[in-house]
Amino acid sequence: MSEKTEKRRADLRARILDAAEAVVIVEGMSAVKARDLATKAGCALGAIYNVFDDMTQVVLEVNSRTYKRLGAAVAEAMAQVRDAPPVDQLVALGHAYLHFADSNTNAWRTLFDIPMSAETGVPEWYIDETKRLLHNISGPLSQVRPDLTPENLSILCRALFSSVHGIVILGLEKRITAVPEQDLAPMIEVIIRNYVGSQAKI
Amino acid sequence: MSEKTEKRRADLRARILDAAEAVVIVEGMSAVKARDLATKAGCALGAIYNVFDDMTQVVLEVNSRTYKRLGAAVAEAMAQVRDAPPVDQLVALGHAYLHFADSNTNAWRTLFDIPMSAETGVPEWYIDETKRLLHNISGPLSQVRPDLTPENLSILCRALFSSVHGIVILGLEKRITAVPEQDLAPMIEVIIRNYVGSQAKI
Fold first, then answer.
1. Which tens digit of pLDDT belongs to each residue from B51-70?
2. From A112, A163, A199, residue closest to B199, measured CB to CB
3. Smallest Cβ distance to A166: which of B126, B156, B169?
4. Between the N and C ends of chain B, which has fewer C-beta atoms within 10 Å?
5. Angle, alpha carbons B193-B196-B200 (nearest 5°)
6. Per-residue pLDDT tens digits for B24-39
7. Taking 50 as the threshold, does the pLDDT of residue B96 lie above it?
8. What total of structural domains would you count in chain A?
């Protein structure tokens, strides 16, 4: 492929992704339609499928951008509590996650709503983004619990992340638990402090 | 309305719900289509809208059945550990929730996937089903933590349920945390034991 053709393809990809990201942020994943994206990116419908396999791949790439924004938000929160006790760092992380989900609800939901079947599995770079996120937790957690083997540290990180995620997702959706939004931050703090300050060991 | 007409309406509702429940269990909520339900229930398409407001109401009623099945599964698990220490009862509850979600994945997911906007709010009976479920947790939890005010007990119940839910949902979907399925039950046990056995108090 010539350099010029390659640049044209890259430009087209970026325009389509910009259009898709805007749709995901404002209306959510279900509003992402190939025909609309073509109109917004100023290309023929078929051109989308020259640069992307399918709409799932488009949404996955939007999610990659969302992960980067989430990562930046988390890094900023961590920078502000760098000198605080590790358990306070964990609470700040949990609150940053809640805040990001609350102010980017559609994009954040889309991280979990993409259709990934057991057959196709999870793409490698998705796992890598995860590891980067979980690494933020394992740092302070390993200071509170230096007794853990790397394996148990990894399990506790995932359990802690999943717990905070459960509070955020049920809270923001006002589903089963019907928790008022102002209770979410204290719930996250309580569960993290109880969890890492616990006597019961893995 | 005559008794006969009323019975006919009730029969039709039940047939439509049976058809919808079967679809939800096998294929999930997105596969519930009015036209298919009419065919399966042996009625005209318009007849569905004589007995239900819309497809959302049909799915909500299917969810009501799912809640009852979940409630029965939880009650059965509780009956088996009635004489165990309260913390073991809580672990059994968490495991029963995981087991139900794992073996009824589509129906369980549908509990959380129904479109409920902030405007329409959550129906009253949905909140009641929730309270019944959370009541199973508050019993043993109040034995472990008799110091809690009713308000704090309620917050801790919801936080504990949300945590277990987060582990189950991320685990079964193999999204961000990519936790192998056999690790889910131990993670639930660890988080519950750490949580309720904790020294850090609300």
1. 999 998 899 899 999 999 99
2. A199
3. B169
4. N
5. 120
6. 999 999 899 999 999 9
7. yes
8. 2
Put simply, the answer to whether A159 touches B169 (Cβ < 8 Å) is no
Q: Give the model's pLDDT for residue B199.
A: 42
Q: Which residue of chain B comes nearest to A151, CA vs CA?
A: B183
Residue to test with chain B: of A177, A184, A192, A201, most B Cβ within 10 A: A177
Q: Which residues contact B14 (CB under 8 A, 6 or more apart)?
A: none
- Note whether A156 and A145 are within 8 A (CB): yes
Largest CA distance in chain A: 63
A174, A197, A202: residue with CB nearest B199: A197
Q: A156 and A105 in one domain?
A: yes
Residue B188 distance to chain A (closest CA, Å) = 8
How far, in Å, CA of B96 to CA of B121, rounded?
29
For residues A99 and A29, membership in a common domain is answered with no
Query: At A200, is the pLDDT very low, low, confident or very high (cuts 50, 70, 90)?
Result: very low
Model confidence at B201: pLDDT above 60: no
What value does the CA radius of gyration of chain B take, rounded to a whole number of Å?
A: 20
Domain span at residue B47 reads 1-52
B155 with A193: Cβ contact below 8 A = no
